[in-house]
Design goal:
The chain contains no helices and 11 strands. The chain is an all-beta fold.
Length: 118
């Protein structure tokens, strides 16, 4: 079973940066593609970024050019570098296992809160 534990959330002013981390265990290579999702109050959950098994990345249009996803070669840690944060980026961020090639979320962690003040 995939286990995902996030850390690194917090409060930041608009324009600031945060880096989220995720400890991954139980990951089965090529079964899932790892990434990040978020959910703001009153909104649906959305995929933010993922790493495909070939190392390519995919981002939601709303974060392209500002967020960067990365991971270690052992696939035990996943990161999300978030720059130029906007108030609309405020949400609960989840480390996630997606069905590869889609934003269909199969597993997620407990989440870490990101707050962005204007």
């Amino acid at each position: 079973q995939v286990q995902l534990v996030e850390s690194g959330g917090g409060s930041v002013q608009a324009g600031g940066s945060l880096t989220l981390s995720c400890a991954v265990s139980g990951y089965t290579y090529k079964t899932y593609c790892m990434g990040w999702a978020r959910q703001a109050p009153g909104k649906g959950r959305e995929g933010v970024a993922l790493i495909n098994n070939d190392g390519s990345t995919r981002y939601a249009d709303s974060v392209k050019g500002r967020f960067t996803i990365s991971g270690d070669n052992a696939k035990t840690t996943l990161y999300l570098q978030m720059n130029s944060l906007k108030p609309e980026d405020a949400a609960m961020y989840y480390c996630a296992a997606f069905l590869c090639g889609t934003w269909s979320l199969i597993y997620r962690g407990q989440g870490t809160q990101v707050t962005v003040s204007s």
